[in-house]
Amino acid sequence: MQNLWSDSDAKAAIAAHAKKGIGEDLALRVYTTRLLGGEPKLVLHGGGNTSVKTRMPDITGQTIDVLCVKGSGWDMGTIEAPGLPAVRLAPLKELHGLQALSDEDMVNVQRSNLLDSKSPNPSVETLLHAFLPHKFIDHTHSNAVLALTDQPDGAELAADLYGKRAALVPYVMPGFALARKCSEVGQANPDVEGLILLKHGIFSMGATAEEAYVRMIDLVTMAEQRLAKATRKIFPGAALPSQLAKVEEIAPILRGLMSIPAKNGGREAAQRFVFEFRTNPEILAFVNGKEITRYSQQGPVTPDHAIRTKNLPFIAPAPEAGKLDVFKTEAKAALDTFAADYHAYFERYNGKQILAKKELDPVPRVVLVPGVGLFGVGNSSKDAKIAADLAETTVAVIADAERLGTYECIPEPDIFDIEYWSLEQAKLSSAAEKPLARRIAVVTGGASGIGAATAAALAKDGAEVVVIDRDVSKVKGFAIACDVTNAAEVQVAFDKVAATYGGVDIVVSNAGAAWQGKIGTVDEATLRKSFELNFWAHQSVAQNAVRIMRAQGLGGCLLFNTSKQAVNPGPDFGPYGLPKAATLFLMRQYALDHGADGIRSNAVNADRIRSGLLTDEMIAQRSRARGLTEADYMGGNLLGLEVTAEDVAQCFLSLAKAPKTTGAVLTVDGGNIAAALR
């Protein structure tokens, strides 16, 4: 483990914080916290915590002793000074004399002693930091330390390695009891550099920020060097099909099977999920192992992971190419067993709780697929990425543990206590979900104009949005460069969406361009070129969307930009209007043929929207063709108002959220009776 401390960087951090009125102690605490948080082998996604004991003025101006400790919800890799809220230290120390303290009372005491009531909740391990005497304290979930201690003889291995440099703390659930135990061990071993929390993590302590940080790096390096001596061959491979199905083929199947059905029996799932796929040689060795049902089903490598990954990952069957129906049947049976096992796990331990818990959903948050890789599963792309990161860490830790001996984590009752611990569950609580949360949306022609406005509107309402366009260089977020008139490129793009997020729920087929000319004299090449983009591309996009939607079995939503030209053609605009009219009826055919699949198909007819399609030059041309000024042309509707791309986006958005509307055309043109359908 590399020591990243830099005297010059530390001085720069002190100077930068001084300009904000922040003292040296807290400045250095931020600096080394970021050093630790930037190393994924030490800290991931809000895990770990740090503290410094210093002095600050209270509201009366009196300087008092405080503990600045990492606040809940802050990430160590990007933390700022407000993420280390100051808590009055004396009242915290007084709690040491208690024999017991409930979690609720602990949180109340910590919050009531904040110097700033608007600060985030101090870490659940605040009392541990307070009860130890050291000025700077660091805590991480080091991969190497976990691999060393997640063993049946982990205590002996750690004692042999660290000797008098670090003291051992048996596993105790975080909170008041762990704080008392660490204080007891610390008092018995006052000269140690750190504490090894068996099957949990590591603490290092020091008089300075540098000393605590360097001790952490040194202690972790010792564990890494010990693991490097272990060369036992691990994960002998299991027999797999000679040809495996592709990730883009199996992801939609799994996503559909793992969605929670609506109570009304409709195809609209009450709860669906977003995926994040990972694979590499290390992951493949893990998921392909003959003993995967042993080493992967022990539990999380550190208790902190349980709230993100649940107690166990799900092992899917190995998917054979060309036999997706078999994979679906076997995966469903395995998921039913997983759910039944989770219900039983909950029942085993819920009855032993003083206050009964509410059972969480039985859907796995990590899926292991032999021959393919693993999926992180979450309510959003962010959550899925976190689950996948933790799963990759689990793979690495278990691999090291198995080289050394036999992987063994905390017992199942302790896993349950962490997974259902109210203080940990609070980390996941959030405001009500947005209407399109958990939905995966694709917008073609989404880099500008109506497409960009629609992509933004869908994202604002919670969807995970993928933009498809020929030029995506200026698109922020997930985008795929694709010419929608190239059927092969369209298939590759949709496969990439399915492999990335797990499937597709909403598709806005918007890409288009306008060709002009009198229909009696326009050349065939122009007309065919317009049909390629304004009709055939819509068909290619819709076919690929339906392919994935049917694999999911969750229904879906197709939305077409058909333009008012489809029903109210303009002079000299036949090359554009004719394929748009065909696309309008294409929309209706999809509604007719795939309503039984729960797939809705609707269209938006817009008119005179400034964009890359209707440029200033074209506005001038169309105005002249109609004998109007440009202002009268753009506002030539019953309301006398120019319609914007954002107005069209809201129409697409409303149709995306209309679960019982299909075969409909929504007009947004300011009012044009000639283009009104009904």
List the helices and strands and how they pair.
Blueprint: H1 7-18, H2 24-37, E1 49-57, E2 63-69, E3 86-88, H3 89-94, H4 103-112, H5 126-131, E4 136-140, H6 143-149, H7 154-162, E5 166-169, H8 176-188, E6 194-197, E7 201-206, H9 209-228, H10 247-258, E8 274-278, H11 281-287, H12 292-295, H13 306-309, E9 314-315, H14 324-350, E10 366-369, E11 373-378, H15 381-404, H16 412-419, H17 422-425, E12 440-444, H18 449-460, E13 464-469, E14 479-481, H19 487-501, E15 506-509, H20 524-552, E16 556-561, H21 574-594, E17 599-606, H22 616-626, H23 630-634, H24 645-656, E18 665-668
Parallel strand pairs: 5-6, 9-10, 12-13, 12-15, 13-14, 15-16, 16-17, 17-18
Antiparallel strand pairs: 1-2, 1-4, 2-3, 4-7, 6-7, 8-11, 10-11
Helix pairs in contact: 1-2, 6-9, 6-15, 10-14, 10-19, 10-20, 18-24, 19-20, 20-21
